[in-house]
Structure formats: C-alpha cells, structure tokens
Amino acid sequence: EIVLTQSPGTLSLSPGERATLSCRASERLSSRYLAWYKQRPGQAPRLLIYGASNRATGVPDRFSGSGSGTDFTLTIGRLEPEDFAVYYCQQYHSSPQTFGQGTKVEVK
Amino acid sequence: QVQLQQSGPGLVKPSQTLSVTCAISGDSVSSTSAAWNWIRQSPSRGLEWLGRTYYRSKWHNDYAESVKSRITINPDTSKNQFSLHLNSVTPEDTAVYFCARDRAGWDYFDPWGQGTLVTVSS
Question: Which of B47, B65, B110 is nearest residue A88 as measured by Cβ atoms?
Fold first, then answer.
C-alpha cells in the first residue's frame, strides 16, 4: 500500500502567519487522487482540497494545494483562529486508500 | 446537502461483534455515483479505511486486507442507511468509527458522519 508521510509533525505559528504543510508519497501519484482534510478536536475530518489543488465547496481561498508525483503541499495563506487543527493528506490513487499521520498546527 | 448520522453502542466485549449504522439524508445508498465507506481512527493506527459498499447494477463491497476476514458492510435500501459489522473484536479495535461518502471516480471522502467511539472491553 502507498505510505504517506507528513511533515512537520507539529507547526507552531501565530494567527496571521502562513502555514506550509508537506505530504510525501512512497510511490508516484496522479495529482487527481490526493486530498487534504482538516480535523478539530472531537469532530470528524472535513474535506478541504481534492485533486491536489481543488478547493471543496465552502473552503476559504486562503487554503491552497499544490504538488505532483510524490510531493504535495497544503498552504494556508494567513492563519485564522479556526485554522488551528490537525491536517491530513489522503491518497486514492490505489486501494487501499491511505492517510498520512497528520500535521498539527498549533498556536505559538 | 448530504448528511450522515451514525448510531451504535459505545461498548463491546472482546470476541463479540461491533455494529455501527449510518443513516443517509440528501442522497441514496443505491446511488450509482457514490460509495459508502467506513473509516476508523485510533492513536495507534491513525486514520484507517476499512471498506465500502456501492451499487452499480448490483451491490459491491471492497474491504481492507487488515480486516477482510472479520468485516461486513451491508446496505439497507428500505431505511436508506448502511451498517458496519466487525466480528471477533479485540481491544485493538477500540477506535472512533466514521462513515463517509465518496463519489464515483473520486475516492475522496465527503461528507463524514459525526463519529462513534467504540471501546472494546470486558
């Protein structure tokens, strides 16, 4: 199965700062098949980005996704208080669908 | 707007069967452009896809190898819901279980159910 490795494990930033999260795949992926999710404590994950760079309905444009092959990035332009959460990448290039271990974005 | 509402017991004894149900509103379990998934989350295993059911002229199921011998996912068209059954559970199956939809040709998950914490303990 494809292993996704996210870095860093924790990102300590202040509101208004820019966040850059990385997701590296153990095999080359089609960009079409990479998604990003946000999860706040006690809640289900929420889809942010699909197809590596397409924002889901209702997702603010401060969230952007990029990348191809084995390296993908989620960027949050200016952190809002509600953006402090855990972020996961997920691949659906091949079964089983797999998730990264997550990056926690915390308040510095 | 599609919504998924989960229900099920929060405590299951070892060796018994874990069962969680996901009721669908705003879509149909028989949709030919969707699939209905179960995913679990635990500190030790992270987010783990377990399996899915979907209808394409007939019913299909896909299961993760890690649970393939113990899992069944059943659709219920009369109630527009689907259910997860995981038998012979051990404490390692303790997790939050989520249901989620994926769209045909796009296997990302949206939306998700609210999650059900299931603890396996005697």
Answer: B47
Question: How many Å separate Cα B111 from the centre of its chain?
Answer: 13
Rounded distance, CA B50 to CA A40, Å?
Answer: 22
Q: Which amino acid is at A101?
A: Q
Is residue B37 within 8 A of residue B22, CB to CB? The reply is no
Q: Which two tokens stand for residue B81?
A: 């819901």
3-state secondary structure of B90: coil
The span from the CA of A65 to the CA of A50, in Å, is 8
Q: Which of A45, A51, A95 sits opposite B62 (nearest CB)?
A: A95
Nearest residue in chain A measured CA to CA from B68: A96
A33 and chain B: CB distance < 8 Å anywhere?
yes
Write out pLDDT tens, residues A35-77. Answer: 999 999 999 999 999 999 999 999 999 999 999 999 999 999 9
Residues of chain B whose pLDDT is less than 70? none
Of A43, A92, A102, the CB nearest to B108: A92
Residue contact A99–B109, C-beta within 8 A:
no
Q: What is the DSSP letter of A32?
A: G
Can you point out the beta strands (E) in chain B? Answer: 3-7, 11-12, 18-25, 34-42, 46-55, 59-63, 71-76, 81-86, 95-103, 106-112, 116-120
